């Protein structure tokens, strides 16, 4: 973010600030006045990262099943995977009576079993 503090005179002070929870203190002095102030750059709710460019809003519906990390990355809810957490981690096939997950499977017809995490 670009911050400019310009006075009625030709004096001008400019700086670039990153998003941060930390306050920056500054002051402006003229012949008769002193102004002291503090400011910071923060993101609005649901926006994260440099320049607040990363949008993440938690959801649990047909468009995704996730929450957001402190950095604004999607974190899939239990049982979901994929970029937007729209793919179930398991697949149920009634034709073979096989339940398959990402890491383990159970086959009832063949008596093969494995634990689910």
UniProtKB/TrEMBL annotation:
Topology with respect to the bilayer: Single-pass type I membrane protein
InterPro entries cross-referenced by the UniProt entry: DSL
SMART domains: DSL (SM00051)
Keyword annotations of the record: Developmental protein, Disulfide bond, EGF-like domain, Membrane, Repeat, Signal, Transmembrane, Transmembrane helix
Domain DSL: 41-85
Subcellular location field: Membrane
GO biological process: anterior/posterior pattern specification; cell surface receptor signaling pathway; lateral inhibition; segmentation; sensory organ morphogenesis
GO molecular function, a single term: receptor ligand activity
Disulfide bonds: 43-52, 56-68, 76-85
An annotated GO cellular component: membrane
Domain of life from the UniProt record: Eukaryota
Keyword Transmembrane helix found: yes
Keyword Oxidoreductase belongs to the record: no
Function: Putative Notch ligand involved in the mediation of Notch signaling.
The protein's name in its UniProt record: Delta-like protein
Naturally occurring in which organism (per UniProt): Culex quinquefasciatus
Lineage of the species this protein comes from: Eukaryota, Metazoa, Ecdysozoa, Arthropoda, Hexapoda
Name of encoding gene: 6053524
């Amino acid at each position: 973010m670009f911050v400019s503090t310009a006075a009625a005179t030709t004096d001008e002070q400019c700086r670039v600030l990153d998003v941060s929870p930390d306050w920056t203190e500054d002051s402006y002095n003229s012949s008769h006045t002193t102004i002291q102030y503090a400011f910071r750059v923060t993101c609005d709710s649901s926006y994260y990262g440099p320049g607040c460019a990363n949008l993440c809003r938690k959801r649990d519906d047909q468009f995704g099943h996730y929450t957001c990390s402190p950095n604004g990355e999607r974190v899939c809810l239990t049982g979901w995977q994929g970029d937007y957490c729209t793919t179930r981690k398991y697949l149920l096939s009634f034709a073979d009576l096989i339940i398959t997950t990402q890491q383990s499977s159970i086959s009832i017809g063949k008596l093969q079993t494995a634990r689910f995490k």
